[in-house]
Amino acid sequence: MAKTLILYHGIYGHTRKIAETIESELHRLGGPADLVPITEWNVDEAGRYQAIVIGAAIRNGKHNRVVLEFIRKHRALLESKHNAFFSVNLVARKAEKNTAETNPYVKAFLNRSPWQPQLVGVIAGNLDYQRYRFFDRHVIRFIMTLTGGPTDLNTKVEFTDWDRVRSFAAEIAALSTAGGA
Ligand SMILES: Cc1cc2nc3c(=O)[nH]c(=O)nc-3n(C[C@H](O)[C@H](O)[C@H](O)COP(=O)(O)O)c2cc1C
After folding, report:
1. Distance, CA of 128 to CA of 10 (rounded, Å)
2. pLDDT tens digit string along 27-41?
3. Is 19's C-beta closer than 6 angstroms to any atom of ligand 1?
4. Topology of domain 4-125+161-177, per CATH?
5. DSSP helix/strand/coil, 20
């Protein structure tokens, strides 16, 4: 099976945890994968991979701008491989907002991105108030108030559906077994 590169961007570690789950599921399915923060990856390594996955968390309504900058710069490279994107956010905890067609951040991302990924995953994130810096804690609490989520500052809940993450990994694996690059 193809070798996959997973590039990710998050702040508090949950996007990395999702990327690790995708990595280990790809391994289980027989395909090697590497995991690298998007800001640390060296493009000279690109030749080693047949598939590239980018994963990014939403913070204050947006994916970090380094993600879009990376995509703009490396669009041709992404399109030359099997490719996929996943977004991690808390709005995706709602069943009616957890697809590429219904999640507002992913819709906005796909409108702005010159790269249209072959596969798009929308994954519900983590809420752990005590882990956040003071300002972040209050920003996310405000967002939770607006969207009808938990506002108790002791809340610690992983909304991530790990079976869905593993299914997404299987879809990534299927891209390369289907042929092509
Ligand atoms: C400061 C902050 C702002 C956030 N803003 C949003 C937001 O606007 N919309 C949303 O759906 N989720 C928002 N989230 C939720 C994150 O996307 C979610 O917690 C994710 O799991 C964070 O991933 P990370 O641990 O890799 O940073 C926010 C989280 C934090 C800490």
Report:
1. 14
2. 999 999 999 999 999
3. no
4. Rossmann fold (3.40.50)
5. helix
